[in-house]
Design goal:
single chain; six-stranded mixed sheet; alpha+beta; Endo/exonu/phosph_ase_sf; Deoxyribonuclease I, Chain A
Length: about 260
């Protein structure tokens, strides 16, 4: 069981939509959060039908940018508690006896308005506590080691991000895979940053103590998809396939040779 979050940078691009379908088929997440969909409900409903997910909730794009979507499988019941241009916050039932909370979050890309996003996250953090996991593209780093190339990030920006995460009681889930989740070339510099992350409160980590986060690969977006796996052991077993073995006794069957030739 897993949740996946990805800043797909627009699903109007056929390459991005094809890649998303391939990622979902390969990773088989229970819940999918998408940011910067640049799409309306109608297009996302077509996607939901293609990938055969049971539920869809969307926040429309604004002009030629933005847009959020949350998709989920029939294995769980999802109740949408709140949403904005920055987030979709839901309560999840069905996997375990106790409900838990999932928030897909998208940080404000314009630093002049970033406090709006952090105020929204604080509001979410002030709600009655359930086990809580939050994933997405936060458009910010926590420390200088999460950036390579370009200008140094002002301390006041990273400090503001750190303070809101502390207020929410979030613990960074860490990651496996490549160090950075976003890259771009600006002002002649190649820049790499860890903008996408997963975090959870203590109750969620106690509920899913083996959970790990993975940075995945993609080609159509400048952001990597990220995936939280609740139980890595069950995930590896899901992908185990018994190897094919040819049985000598099949040669005794008169139709064996014909079958091999047809193949």
């Amino acid at each position: 069981m897993s949740c996946l979050a990805w800043n797909c940078r627009g699903l109007g691009n056929p390459q991005a939509e094809d890649e998303l379908e391939n990622i979902i088929r390969a990773q088989d997440p229970l819940i999918v959060f998408l940011s910067e969909t640049w799409s309306g409900r109608k297009q996302l409903e077509k996607l939901r039908c293609k990938i055969k997910y049971a539920g869809l909730f969307t926040v429309p794009s604004q002009g030629r940018g933005g847009g959020l979507a949350l998709l989920w499988k029939s294995d769980v019941a999802v109740w949408v508690d709140s949403f904005s241009k920055y987030h979709i916050d839901v309560v999840v039932n069905g996997m375990t006896t106790e409900p838990w909370r999932f928030t897909g979050f998208y940080g404000e890309p314009n630093t002049s308005y970033r406090e709006e996003a952090w105020s929204m996250l604080r509001m979410l953090g002030s709600k009655p506590h359930l086990p809580w996991c939050c994933m997405g593209d936060f458009n910010e780093i926590l420390q200088t080691e999460e950036k390579r190339g370009g200008r140094t990030r002002p301390h006041v920006q990273t400090q503001a991000f750190r303070e809101v995460l502390d207020f929410c009681g979030f613990i960074d889930l860490g990651f496996t895979g490549p160090k950075f989740t976003w890259h771009s070339r600006r002002h002649g510099y190649l820049i790499w940053e860890r903008l996408d992350r997963g975090m959870a409160n203590y109750d969620w980590i106690a509920k899913f103590p083996a959970a790990t986060l993975r940075h995945l690969h993609c080609f159509s977006s400048d952001h990597r998809p990220i995936k939280v796996v609740f139980d890595p052991n069950s995930e590896s077993q899901r992908w185990f396939r018994r190897p094919f073995r040819f049985e000598e006794m099949w040669l005794a069957d008169s139709g064996c040779s014909d079958t091999v030739l047809r193949a």
